[in-house]
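== Folding the chain ==

***
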Amino acid sequence: MATKRDYYEILGVNKNASDDDLKKAYRKLAKACHPDANPGNKEAEARFKELSEAYSVLSDAQKKAAYDQFGHAAFDQSSGGGGGFSGGMNFDMGDIFDSFFGDGFGDIFGGTRRRGGPRRGADIHTSINVKFEEAAVGVEREIQINANETCETCRGSGAKQGTTAENCKHCGGSGQKRVAQQTMFGTMTSVRTCEICRGEGKIIKDLCSTCRGAGRVQKSKKIKVTVPKGIENGQSIRISGKGEAGEKGGQMGDLLITVYVGPHKLFIRPQGSVNLLLEMPITMTIASLGGEITIPTLDGQEKYTVKPGTQPGTKISLRGKGVPNVKNNRIVGDLIVTLNVVIPTGLTERQRQLLREFAEDVGDDYKDDKKGFFDKFRGK
């Protein structure tokens, strides 16, 4: 008889492992080798049984104490171990998994739970591209998607017209079967998906000629999508009930559309903001003497009077010229304009002479700010 592996080694924990450590280790390893996740894999099935056996002992304080003292002999009725642990074990593997993962755990692996009831349709994910201006003011688009819809011929039953599905005789219509196995611990009972009806609980003898028993057929359809005002790049729109058709009368899935907003030549929208940023060049003359400039906005042009002596990098704000808040269109951001003074290049000789004369005329004390800068530089 092959030597049994140490239970702590099987779970990959040490003898001082807490109950929480044991549970985490078992959960991680059991999910990977669960029979429903590895159909037909005898090695995975054996590994799963080994893990379950180890956890059933180490998670029970009394059995763990006996195992720590006597090892496997504690449960071997034929051994002469002085501390033999009497009594067998009879537990349902489905109950163990429910305690970890909840009632729906079996569905993850294709079914330790009956699958014959209504099931919600899957969500469909797609994307669209819109222009910067369209995202700001909102736009309506029509997109085309492929989706599974309820078969009109059999109305989703999967059975040929005039026939109905019958209860599976192998599992009595439950979609599950309980398997009892004798082990050295006693009887171990596990719940498995019925391999005949694959968990449906029903058998369709005469398949629908249109959907071949699937109950759904794939169709191409057009959907109108309203892109809301103020949507940001990468945000999604959810349209309820426009995804895949449900099964067995289950509700429709949703359509999820990710919106990708193209960049603008002039404006920048910071992530999460309703404000717009604009770099606006102005001439040295306008900055010095003041004057009127024309500022572009998303909905036209705005006149603005620059004050005399405006410095490079000065920021001005045009209220309500940003974008609407996608959740509340009554909130609209501002257009933040940075005024950048453009220094002329390629001056004519006359223009250079005029600038020299200007420099001579104003001298070194033409600007209080300049004196203040040098005072700071000298530490005054």
